[in-house]
Specification:
Elements lengths: L1 E3 L13 H11 L1 E7 L6 H11 L2 E4 L12 H12 L6 E10 L7 H18 L3 E6 L2 H11 L5 E4 L5 H9 L2 E5 L9 H9 L5 E3 L15 H5 L11 H12 L3 H15 L2 H7 L6
Helix pairs in contact: 3-4, 4-5, 9-10
Bound molecules: zinc ion.
Zinc ion binds next to loops.
Length: 278
């Protein structure tokens, strides 16, 4: 049984067939999905989806959304975290972080929202789900400065070995997904193969980050082909991870599942709940 630690199940790409996407994920052996929020506008949507399907959710303001966010949104986040403190489905603060790849984003505004949300993580005692894009050192600096001890997940990790070790030292796990299925992803494949076994969690980031078998060329996309990723792809991604590690597929599922439960401890309580009705 697999855990998809990062899937934007609320995305518009799934509006037409979300029930089928969930059914395919279940049939493929994906037992649990973590649905991170990206702005206050989708807090209720991710919460509702998680409850509807027996999944988990996180609340936070994504770095790509801070330009449209108001300072008041932090108070809204704080209130939501308080209101849902006893909700077993609320497992983390996320998706938060820093994106230094997209050049149009205000660095200082991103930093401010990131640090303020780390303070909320510290205050509410929740792990964080981090968006890491050319920003690993700055993210690590924020974690140290605010003194976040609850760990979490560095999602779609694409940093150096040294940066990976620094996240692990702070109690984080690192998320690996579709990118590792490409032969040309040398650095990510090397990390996935060589990091300690207890460092790795699996994720799809669906509908984004398609694995190699869903990839379509620019010309194919121009002709209308979709490369939408979905959580049901996780076991096949996981079997590529197993091959890199020299694990059986069952070992890969078991090890990454245990790691996810360590990174997001409230997931354990969720597993024990009776299966939700459809
Ligand atoms: Zn994401």
């Amino acid at each position: 049984m697999w855990i998809d630690t990062h899937c934007h199940l609320d995305a518009g790409e799934f509006d037409a067939d979300r029930a089928e996407v969930v059914a395919r994920a279940r049939a493929a052996g994906v037992q649990q999905i973590v649905i991170p929020a990206v702005s206050v506008d989708n807090f209720e949507t991710v919460r509702h989806l998680a409850h509807q399907h027996g999944y988990a959710y996180a609340l936070g303001i994504h770095p790509l959304y801070v330009m449209g966010a108001a300072e008041e949104d932090l108070a809204t986040l704080d209130r939501a975290l308080t209101a849902h403190r006893d909700d077993p489905h609320l497992v983390a603060i996320g998706e938060i972080g820093l994106d230094f790849f997209v050049k149009s984003l205000d660095v200082q505004r991103q930093q401010w929202f990131y640090l303020e949300q780390l303070k909320l993580a510290r205050r509410h005692g929740l792990p964080v789900i981090l968006h890491v894009r050319r920003s690993a050192d700055q993210l690590l600096g924020g974690l140290r400065r605010i003194g976040v001890t609850t760990g979490g997940i560095g999602h779609a990790f694409n940093g150096s070995r040294q940066q990976a070790e620094a996240f692990l030292a702070l109690g984080f796990k690192l998320g690996f997904g579709g990118t590792l299925t490409f032969d040309r992803s040398l650095q990510i494949r090397r990390l996935a193969a060589e990091l300690p076994a207890d460092a790795l969690v699996t994720e799809t980031d669906a509908p984004d980050i398609p694995p190699q078998w869903l990839y379509r060329t620019f010309e194919e996309r121009a002709a209308g082909a979709s490369m939408r990723n979905e959580p049901g792809e996780l076991p096949r991604i996981g079997s590529d991870l197993a091959a890199l590690r020299g694990w059986t597929v069952e070992e890969a599922a078991c090890i990454t599942r245990n790691n996810a439960l360590q990174a997001l401890p409230k997931l354990a309580g969720l597993q024990a709940q009776p299966a939700p009705r459809a």
